[in-house]
Amino acid sequence: QVQLVESGGGLMQAGGSLRLSCASSGRTFSIYVVGWFRQAPGKEREFVTAISWSGGWTRYGDSVKGRFTISRDNAMNTVYLQMNSLKPEDTAVYYCAAATSRRWSANVSEYNVWGQGTQVTISS
After folding, report:
1. What is the rounded CA–CA span in Å between residue 51 and residue 73?
2. pLDDT truncated to tens, each residue of the chain (124 aa)?
3. Which of 40, 46, 51, 102 is a good FRET partner for 94, with 20 to 30 A between their CA atoms?
4. Helix, strand or coil for residue 85?
């Protein structure tokens, strides 16, 4: 069993930066990949980025490449999402999620543990 808790969301003007955190606890040894997803009202949940639990590889969705960076701390307790050059279209609830399947995936269905989400609102 794994628990994930997101934090760091808030209100920011376009062009600004935010850093989100995803703190993990429980049976973290079972985690293979941690991903960030976002969901705006009326839209499907969208893949943002992912990192292997070991930190060996990362993946990014096309809409955030060059602006967002995923990373982890040295103790592998927390995964971060650094968001720069924020745009109004980045407004969404951001979720971190964990998958135990030993393969990379951008599909929501492949992730079996989810955090509660944190709201990010970008004003123009």
Report:
1. 12
2. 899 999 999 999 999 999 999 999 998 888 999 999 999 999 999 999 999 988 889 999 999 999 999 999 878 789 999 999 999 999 999 999 999 888 888 999 999 999 999 999 999 9
3. 102
4. coil
For 5, the 3-state DSSP assignment is: strand
- Residue 61 exposed, middle or buried by CB count within 10 Å (0-12, 13-18, 19+): middle
Total number of residues shown for the chain: 124
Structure token pair of residue 49:
């980025």
Q: Which residues contact 33 (CB under 8 A, 6 or more apart)?
A: 50, 51, 52, 53, 98, 99, 104, 105
115, 20 Cβ separation under 8 angstroms: no
Phi-psi region of 117 (alpha: psi -120 to 50; beta: other; left: phi over 0): left
